[in-house]
Amino acid sequence: GVSGKGPTLQDAFAQIGLGVLALTVDPGSVEERETRAVRAHGVDPVDLLVNWLNECLYVLDVEGFVARRIEFIAFVPHPAALGGEPMRLHCLLHGQEAEPGRHDAAPTLGAFSTKGAAIIESSQGVEARAVTRG
Q1: What do you get for the CA distance between the two ends of the chain, in Å?
Q2: In terms of DSSP bridges, do strands 87-97 and 125-132 run parallel, antiparallel, or are they unpaired?
Q3: What integer pLDDT is reported at residue 132 of this predicted model?
Q4: Structure confidence by residue, pLDDT tens digits, 27-49
Q5: Which residues contact 83 (CB under 8 A, 6 or more apart)?
Q6: Distance, CA of 131 to CA of 95 (rounded, Å)
Q7: Sheet strands side by side (includes 112-122)
Q8: Average pLDDT value for residue range 3-28
């Protein structure tokens, strides 16, 4: 599993996202040459987290893009209104196309699941946890 902590939910999401990306490639070897947009929706914060992490893995595994930094453009971790739009986020991954020999990625991570995932709020801040299926 992977976890991220921060003073806010958005900070915890950023930390867990960076942690997942660091499991696959050394962030110090990545240059910020390009960006990739990632969007996700969810019915609750855990669902939003899992959907977003899986979208980030798609960018890595399918598009071959490695990231060093995450920038949130929109972060709405609550429904707009009763029966309204689900929780959503939009971010930019800053990084580059993977280069063989420089970005020798670790074995591919399995998709994340809501089973074992959690959002824990305390007086010290927020912790986001997620576990891969594979």
Answers
A1: 11
A2: unpaired
A3: 86
A4: 888 999 999 999 999 988 999 99
A5: none
A6: 24
A7: 2-6, 125-132, 112-122
A8: 92
Classify residue 66 by burial, with Cβ atoms within 10 Å: 0-12, 13-18, 19+: buried
State residue 17 phi and psi, 5-degree precision: -60, -45
Contacts of 47 by beta carbon, 8 Å cutoff, 6+ apart: 87, 114
Q: Choose the most confident range, by mean pLDDT, from 10-14, 84-88, 96-100.
A: 10-14
Spell out the residues 6+ positions from residue 108 whose beta carbon is closer than 8 angstroms to its own. 24, 61
The Cα–Cα gap between 29 and 102 comes to 7
Q: Residue 120 and residue 127: Cα distance in Å, rounded? A: 5
The side-by-side arrangement of strands in the sheet containing 34-42 is 34-42, 87-97, 65-76
β-pairing, 2-6 with 125-132? antiparallel
- CB contact at 8 A, 4 and 40: no
DSSP 111: P
pLDDT at position 113 is 92
pLDDT in tens, 49-82: 999 999 999 998 889 899 999 999 999 877 765 5
